[in-house]
Amino acid sequence: MTTPFTQYTLLFECHADYFECHEVLEEAWQAGNRASLGYAVLIQYAVAHYHARRGNEIGARKSIAALHRKLDFAADELQSLGVDIPQFKRDLTIWPLSTVLPLEPTTRARIERLKHAFEPTALSFEELVHKHLYRDRSPVVKERLRALEARNKAKK
User: Fold this and answer.
1) This protein's superkingdom (predicted)?
2) What whole-number distance in Å separates Cα of residue 42 and Cα of residue 27?
3) Nearest residue to 101 via CA among 89, 113, 88, 90
4) 31 lies in some domain
5) Which of the 8 DSSP states describes residue 135?
6) Cβ–Cβ under 8 Å, residues 43 and 29
7) Is 83 helix (H, G, I), strand (E, B) or coil?
8) How many domains does the chain have?
9) pLDDT for 76-119, tens place per residue?
10) Which residue segment(s) compose the domain that 10 sits in?
11) Cα–Cα distances in Å, from 148 out to 32, 34, 63, 139, 156?
């Protein structure tokens, strides 16, 4: 069984599909009632990479600054996932951003064993860079409209 963190790591390192990394952990984060600060940090880390690759250095650096503020609060949870916290902190000070996740040795060994079986992406580089432009936003729009209607009803 693959955990959301394992899926995130494989997508991050094998495909550099930072958008999908965000999606994978966002789903798990939402399912856990947004309780996982470790997932929130990793989501933001993928967002920083996505911005950086698209040439949005300001957006990437804003995400990194927010990560600096959250990292200590999420350190225990990240460490339990197998993240090397001291290396993560160092990686946040390096530009351009590292394309390899800072993992503890046992986690790194497990991920490396899984990489050979991870299917290559069928997306072009251009599709990876601008992936947000290709996704179906209709469920998000529908949910926002439902929430707006509920708020309007509550006001009456």
Assistant:
1) Bacteria
2) 13
3) 88
4) yes
5) S
6) yes
7) strand
8) 1
9) 999 999 999 999 999 999 999 999 999 999 999 999 999 999 99
10) 4-120
11) 24, 21, 28, 14, 13
Residue 28: how many CB atoms within 10 A of its CB? 18
Burial of 63 (0-12, 13-18, 19+ CB in 10 A): buried
DSSP secondary structure letters along 84-131: -HHHHHHHTT-SSPPSS--B-HHHHHHHHHHHTTSPPP---HHHHHTG
Please, which pLDDT band fits residue 150 given cuts at 50, 70 and 90? Answer: confident
Biggest alpha carbon–alpha carbon distance for the chain: 58
Q: Is residue 136 part of a domain?
A: no
Give the span between the Cα atoms of 117 and 140, in whole angstroms.
32
